[in-house]
Amino acid sequence: MSQLIWNGLFVGSFYGLVALGYSMVYGIIKLLNFAHGDIYMLGAFGGFAVLGLLGGVIGTTSFVALLIVLVIAMLLTGAFGVLLERVAYRPLRGAPRLSILITAVGASFAIEYGVRLVAGPNPRVYPLRIGGESIDVLGARITWEQVALIGIAFALMIGLNLYILRTSEGRAMRAIALDPKASLLMGINVDRVISRVFFLGSALAGAAGVMAGAYYGKIDFLMGFVIGLKAFTAAVIGGIGNFPGAMLGGLLLGLLESFGTQWLGGEWRDVFTFAVLILLLSVRPTGLLGERVTERV
Amino acid sequence: MQSRKLLLAATLTLGALSLTACGQGLGSGSTADGSGPITIGMVVPLSGSSSAIGPYMQNGAQLAVNEINADGGIDGRDVKLEVADGACDPKTAVAAANKLVSSDIAASVGGYCSGATLPTLPVFAKQDIPMIIPAANSTQLVEQKLPNVFLINGTGAQQAQAAMKWFDKEGASAVSLVDDNTSYSVDIADKTAALLKESGGPDLAGRVSVTAGESDYSANVNAIITSHPDFVYWTGYYQEGGLIIRQLRQAGYQGPIMVGDGSVDGSLVQIAGEKQAQGVFATMTQTPDTLTNASGWIADYKKAFGADPGPFSTQSYDAVRVAAKAIEDAGSTDGKKMISALEALKDFHLFSGPLTFTPEHTLSSGGFVILKVKGTKFELEDDLS
To answer: pTM (2 decimals)?
Structure first.
């Protein structure tokens, strides 16, 4: 039982980290950024490239190396997120929501097959592998690396939450989420704030990508698709646009999958998971922590 | 979920293909009228999850085509290989098969993923085009009883028998089967489970199905471990196989692990990690590495393509030779005549042994062997003879 919970929490923290980016972007410009999962994939490949460049320099001290690579990959994916918004989404900001949604799907394809052109279709194996000795905690096998990865995930989530609640930039984001036009009139540079949101969300997804690469070892150009959908689901469970909700949704999704597999078998896992979600959303359509908002349109 | 996206891709591809197909249909109707090169088609995965395998098969087939052409072709006509990407996906594979049919091929020598090969059978059957399938080996392929379908790889049932022999030899008592829910993988797992349930041998400890394309299989691994097996048999492909081996070892499982022929690739060891993959067994048809008399062939392959041959290079090479033999024996590229010629084939020399088709159009002898991971490679462990 404790092993099931631990497995669920570990996977769930990845879902949560990626879900945050979905939630942030949706919260601020009401866009479901379907390319977000592919930014996770870009993070994994970015980290792979950085590791290749740094090569022998940081080969031995693996955990420190991971942190360095993590930060570089976050900067890279963050910058890419800004670029993506500037190229693919900003020109369409006044367009109907459906057009921009389709653009997001197109961006997703473009990133996937762009990476395929550069890195090839074969899976790559991370040169830096973490994962090692395990300890026994209440009957569950836990490795220090898992603890460290969950620690990093939570540190990033908490840092982001503080940034949004305590700083003036964070306040500007919340203001735009409420009413972009009024924010503009109040002297907020809306474009810059939106760029910042994309930077932060993409950097978090990139971090998750590097962590997944280093932990699981295998990366490929389609790896972002499944986790993108899962993270989107997590964001919806938690109440899309709500940050603690994204984390909670991620953890819950991880736990549901873990228990579904154990109780009903692997082939029934997704059936079980999504049946529970449908039930949950029919009771609370806005998600666990979502607030009921009156539709402005 | 993924299928919706693929549907979009397939629709776009189909649209693009129908444009190109028109152009080719006019120019190359030469196979039928008995002049010009004979085209042989091949659907293999060049993209997608199994894209590592496609080039091995394409090169193997191309090598045979080169040799036939160097010897003056078939009845003086050159052979041309036309390859289409099936992406290990049913919709893409059907589109690819349609494209090949429209370019008037005499035979098909492709087929890697059984799940993607199955829906292409009727496409070729409608035009009476013989399919000599080199790699895909789900029993479902021949259970359709289509006259044009021939397997030159052992079937899932034969692979299950090989696995069973090895469980007995290794003294396993409780075997857990893990599949990935694809046609190929479920077929082997089903056949193995049926054999395990018969009295006498080892017991079936448990069966687990995983969803392909994910990274975290800890929940599935947990389900395997709680069924307390002393032998785990993975019947899917190498990408997930590598992850599952690694996660099984991390979760503390120390018993033997075996994988099916879809997992035999160096990437399996890389993904699992060299330490974790040591000693992993595999049920596999003969590969160039495990054949004693193939060094000349390997040298030819290296010379032609600048790379080592891989899984199913030999089978693809053989498939082209079988197709050429059928055209020669039939004296024409007429599908029905070729099918009769294939059925009449007797002791044709293949890498895996002499080929005579059974009434079901499968190999009369399976030719499965057991490989074992040593270092970074699969090496021959036991030939099960």
So the answer is: 0.79
